[in-house]
Amino acid sequence: MPVAVGGAVVVLALAVGASVLLGVQSLAPGAVLDAVVGSSADARTDAIVDSRVARTLIGLVVGAAVALSGVVLQGLTRNPIAEPSILGLNSGAALAVVLGIRFLGLDDVTGYVLAAIVGTVLVAALVQSLTMLAPRSSAPVSMALAGAAVMALAQSLIGAVLVTDRGSLDSFRFWQVGSVAGRDAGGVLDIAPVLVLGALLALTAGPTLNAVALGDDLARGLGQRVVLHRGLAAGGAVLLAAGATALAGPIAFVGLVVPHLVRALVGVDHRRVLVLSALLGPAFVVLADVVGRLVSPPSEIQVGIVCAVVGAPVLVLVVRRVRGM
């Protein structure tokens, strides 16, 4: 485990360095250092560094939040393809925020978070209800299909709202595809209480998730208060998914790809998976953002699209493995 953590820290550090240095205009480390300490005389370089530092910080926070949420959701549902975007949670949160902006006049991160939490909870309940209608043997795939249906509906409604309001279309297009570009890093501080609470609930849920993996009856036999601990862990996953969506829009597949990669490295002990996911999730999102800047200069591809391109094949592989069991 220490070796894996050390390797993850190195990967994360390299991702942060690449995010600050690389883009349409690449920067030398010395120029970045001058801009950070305030000794640069080039206003353009200062602006570029400020922008990249902000999007890197947001990418780190969002990556950790979504990855942790994915681990918890997979553990609670015992479903290897459970993940905030696949279950429609991110899209439900984004829809709630857009509706709040359009009809309630929400204009700050606090309002976005509250709306996102409501949307996430409602979608989670809807997806779970739809899944219960299917045979138990097909529950993993049925849950993914229910989430995909809810996600498609939410995205359609978001599009309808934004098209009818030109101002909203210009200002909030990222609610359809997540992005860390152009966001105010100050939003991280506004949303920090929600994310910190969610992270604490998730990171301390390892023993609960390990017990639940053995079955609820055995978990009770091991002294677990299953309902309470499940509720706390689920609350953490909801807070993390809602907070990440309020900050950067719906970024897909991070909570699927990262936990499966981590399990391949350190096994299935959720205590280890949670810690390593909190490090590799940010690296994944930040590197995806870097790739989005470099593949089609001078324009950029939003990080949500890059994550989906990577995550979609992983979803197919996991589903094939589940159906083959």
Overview of this structure, please?
The protein has 325 residues and is mainly α. The protein has one domain (2-324): ABC transporter involved in vitamin B12 uptake, BtuC (Orthogonal Bundle). The chain is built from 14 helices and no strands.
Largest sheet: none
Number of domains: 1
CATH topology: ABC transporter involved in vitamin B12 uptake, BtuC
Fraction of residues in β-strands? under 5%
Order of helices and strands: HHHHHHHHHHHHHH
CATH architecture: Orthogonal Bundle
Task: Please tally the helical runs, counting DSSP H or I stretches of 4 or more residues.
Answer: 14
Roughly how many Å apart are the termini? 29 Å
- Give me the secondary-structure category: mainly alpha
Which superfamily, in CATH terms, is the homologous superfamily? Answer: ABC transporter involved in vitamin B12 uptake, BtuC
Q: From the structure provided, what is the oligomeric state, counting identical versus distinct chains?
A: single chain
Q: Give the radius of gyration.
A: 20 Å
Low-pLDDT regions: none
Q: Give the helix proportion (percent range).
A: over 70%
CATH first level: which class? Answer: Mainly Alpha
Tell me the overall shape. Answer: globular
- Give the integer mean of the pLDDT values: 85
Strand segment tally: 0
Membrane topology: Multi-pass membrane protein
Protein name: Iron ABC transporter permease
GO molecular function, one term: transmembrane transporter activity
Family: Belongs to the binding-protein-dependent transport system permease family. FecCD subfamily.
